[in-house]
Amino acid sequence: MEKYNPFWNGRDYNPIISVDGVALPHCPSSFDWEEEDLSNAQAGRTEDGGMDKNRIGTITALKLEWQNLPLQTMERILRMFAPEYIYVVYISPSVDPYYGYRRAETFYVGNRSMKVHNGKLNICEKLSFNLISRYPHSNT
Q1: The model's pTM
Q2: Could you tell me the CA-to-CA distances from 1 to 5, 6, 12 in Å, in that order?
Q3: What confidence tens digit (pLDDT) does each residue in 70-121 have?
Q4: pLDDT tens per residue, range 41-62
Q5: Are 105 and 120 in contact (CB under 8 A)?
Q6: Which helix (H) or strand (E) holds 75?
Q7: Residue 75's beta-bridge partner residues?
């Protein structure tokens, strides 16, 4: 019996399951997951040097990168992430009791960057950007 792999979506091993209900044309070359604490306005260091964290929730950041693809593929990827907010289903290390490793949430896209490698061969070396949670996750 084959062992369960949460990255397998029936077509390829992609950590991004869908963007607004559509599969990506190409799996990212790099997928970095981050979770950041959000603190309330009273958070900070006290005069004795102690830290009052006062966490009110967390947000997720996904750092995505694609390497060595044709300009047309990079453009399709950019178009998918062009709306102001996007609904993304992705693989997360935070296991949900109902959905397992799959997590769905609304993101906005940070600055986008592309580096051309070889224009003659129509190869773009790198496309990268971050997805940042629009809403915080509960602290409970």
Answers
A1: 0.85
A2: 12, 16, 19
A3: 989 999 999 999 999 999 999 998 777 677 788 999 999 999 998 887 777 8
A4: 998 888 898 998 889 999 999 9
A5: no
A6: helix 71-80
A7: none
Nearest to 86 by CA among 18, 11, 15: 18
- The secondary structure of residue 48, as a DSSP letter, is T
Long-range contacts of 26-31 (CB under 8 A, 24+ apart): 26/66, 26/69, 26/73, 26/77, 28/64, 28/65, 28/66, 29/65, 29/66, 29/67, 29/68, 30/63, 30/64, 30/65, 30/67, 30/128, 31/62, 31/63, 31/64
Classified as helix, coil or strand, 86 is strand
Residue linked to tokens 């981050």: 34
